[in-house]
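DM from R.C. (forwarded with permission)

"hey, sorry to bug you on a friday — could you get me a structure for this? deadline for the figure draft is monday and I only need the backbone to look sensible"
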Amino acid sequence: MPLPAFRFKKFSVEQEGASQPVGTDAVLLGAWADVQGARRFLDIGTGTGVIALMVAQRLSGEQNWDGLGIEIHPPSAVLARDNFAASPWAEQLEIWAGSVQDFAQTIADHYDLIVSNPPFFSERTTSPDQARSLGRHTATLSPGDLLACASQLLTAKGKFCVILPEREGLRLCELAVPQGLYWTRIAEVRSRPGKPVERLLLQFEKSPYAIQREEICMYAGKTGGDYSEEFQKMTEDFYLAG
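My reply, with the result:
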């Protein structure tokens, strides 16, 4: 059955054939990343382009900004290009079809904000779906390569924001310091209050500022499907009602 488009308030995301369809991780990162002062942003592993489109919407009231999505999976790169072209920010968004490693060796640009919902499957946890594996398997983008590329492409005062499971996120924090990156903001994402941490939203910068800590609970109360007030506030500019 074809995967339908995911419709947000100000844009739609076609996702049929994508390595990664729109998911909560992407929405969390797109809503959480600090866009203040960003005039050039980069989305590493953009997939359908949803995070880049969310960042674009948040920057839409600003002047003179542009964004670029990098995507190694060819069908996803085509989807992202089409989704960018169909959005209100078509003139300000571009796609690079290839690996970020090649991009970093080829392009000398620097970015105020870099966002990524990166691979986290190891060789032992590879997804059985080939396209999904490409989007989630660290063989295509190791944590070390991701950090090295981010450090190279980030401006001196830029911010690098990612979302990962807790173990992989803490490991990324350890690996970041030798690359000259320091985590300065962290949000622990839980399904409900008191539940284990499911994801970490992390912000890295090139200077070791004091760390800001946050907690985000997706749902309210111990049971039920109602989103928490904090999650609703984070996503109210994006999600359609109902």
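R.C.: lifesaver. The longest strand covers residues 154-164.
me: no worries. Residues 122-138 have pLDDT under 50 and may be disordered.
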